[in-house]
Amino acid sequence: MYNSIGGLETIVRSxxxxxxxxxxxxxxxxxxxxxxxxxxxxxATNSQRIELENIMKTIPASYQGLLSGKLYLSALKFIRSxxxxxxxxxxxxxxxxxxxxxxxxxxxxxxxxxGGVIVLDCGSIPELFTIASKFAYLxxxxxxxxxxxxxxxxxxxxxxxxxxxxxxxxxxxxxxELLKKELGAKFDIKISTIDLIVxxxxxxxxxxxxxxDTKKIFEQINHFVKQDSILVTAxxxxxxxxxxxxxxxxxxxxxxxxxxFSRIALFLIID
Length: 271
Hints:
about 15% strand; alpha+beta
């Protein structure tokens, strides 16, 4: 069985022309577009919508149209596709995309060999799309596979427990090391910035966007992209939750929420 999510490349193309923008602003635009799309499909309260609107007002007026136009519509299409995908995976008894050996076989077949591997702990769709779009603007070759790693519970533990079958300790850095070995890479790196923010602050959307320095993550990746091809991936993403406390970011959320991104990890190749 082959499960996939459509619309990945379409979104990157729709925002690659924004690559001239500072990375943190680009990330805020991408995040807010997904958040707006997610809330429109969720039974959001008026106060929750206003909370997001107030954050969106901090984006320059010249880019406001994207938040209700082309990028918003692309995000809406993607979220619907993701919901269908996750529903399909829930009905599957044996899910290949949740099996690390299957994912390794897929990557060896499709990717072959890369120069380096970077694993973003809790690296989610807005960050991967921002990074991909920025590199596309810089005329790098970008590939985002529609095959993803499915993390049914949205936590690091689901992935790392599988590392024991490969003779590794159940720690995320050894996932990066395993990918390096399987893809013949020269180096591997784990970046924990996003996960640390989510766990340390339990974090409202506004605070999350203020604390997350996507530019710094981009610069770390760009340092290595200048040297060789890179695989960027994650163990899981994060969820956007809307409840009586307002809007906040977490991962492994068990109830319905506007963005259920902690259940998947993308594979991005930059060369």
